[in-house]
Design goal:
heterodimer; A: 117 residues; mainly beta; 7-stranded mixed sheet; 4-stranded antiparallel sheet; 11 strands; B: 114 residues; 6-stranded mixed sheet
Chain lengths: 117, 114
């Protein structure tokens, strides 16, 4: 069964360093997303991406964040200068289409746990 | 404003019994989708079931069913014949027709007792 894969599963970094979280969405999906979940809290939307550009972003997704689809399969989230409060689980997701219908079901990867020291 | 509300932080159920996890939502958009996800202790988010706002029948997927009451804006998840492996966090989420993002509730931690 096709799945979203994320690497690494755990990333430890020093405050102020840049990190890149990687994702391979399901191959025929067109919409890609990043979410984060701070430990013990709810899942929060960061950004959605379609047709090589950001389609929507939340207020959390400020200038220190960027996303890219560098080739036909990978989708990355870059955090330019990490802060302690960026420590969280980061989930990548993909959906076939957008919208509220069944084609918009978002399938999640297993997540990358980011620890900023 | 809180769009998805899960009022049960924790629930216990005996193995083989059924359990209902509550979810209420708030939207003025006539088109929306409701989703339930399971998050085991390993951390991944597993899609369980989907209900569209225009669907006339309640969604079912194996042991999971969704008790959709549109007028009350509730979308409760029913798990029948609970198994030990059902112990996990369960999140209700909503996606409105005009938005790309999905809003999540705070989650309910379900513990299945042997």
């Amino acid at each position: 069964e096709p799945e979203v894969t994320q690497t690494p599963s755990h990333q430890v970094t020093q405050m102020g360093q840049e990190v890149i979280l990687r994702c391979v969405p399901i191959s025929n999906h067109l919409y890609f997303y990043w979410y984060r979940q701070i430990l013990g809290q709810k899942v929060e939307f960061l950004v959605s991406f379609y047709n090589n550009e950001i389609s929507e972003k939340s207020e959390i997704f400020d200038d220190q964040f960027s996303v890219e689809r560098p080739d036909g399969s990978n989708f990355t989230l870059k955090i330019r200068s990490t802060k302690l409060e960026d420590s969280a689980m980061y989930f990548c997701a993909s959906s076939l289409l957008a919208g509220e219908g069944p084609e918009g079901i978002q399938y999640f990867g297993a997540g990358t746990r980011l620890s900023v020291l | 404003a809180q769009k998805i509300t899960q009022t049960q932080p924790g629930m216990f159920v005996q193995e083989k019994e059924a359990v209902t996890l509550d979810c209420t939502y708030d939207t003025s958009d006539p088109s929306y989708g409701l989703f339930w996800y399971k998050q085991p202790s390993s951390g991944e988010m597993i899609f369980l079931i989907y209900q569209g706002s225009y669907d006339q029948q309640n969604a079912t997927e194996g042991r999971y069913s969704l008790n959709f009451q549109k007028a009350r804006k509730s979308a409760n998840l029913v798990i029948s014949a609970s198994q030990l492996g059902d112990s996990a966090m369960y999140f209700c989420a909503m996606r409105e027709g005009t938005d790309n993002d999905m809003r999540f509730g705070a989650g309910t931690r379900l513990t299945v007792k042997p």
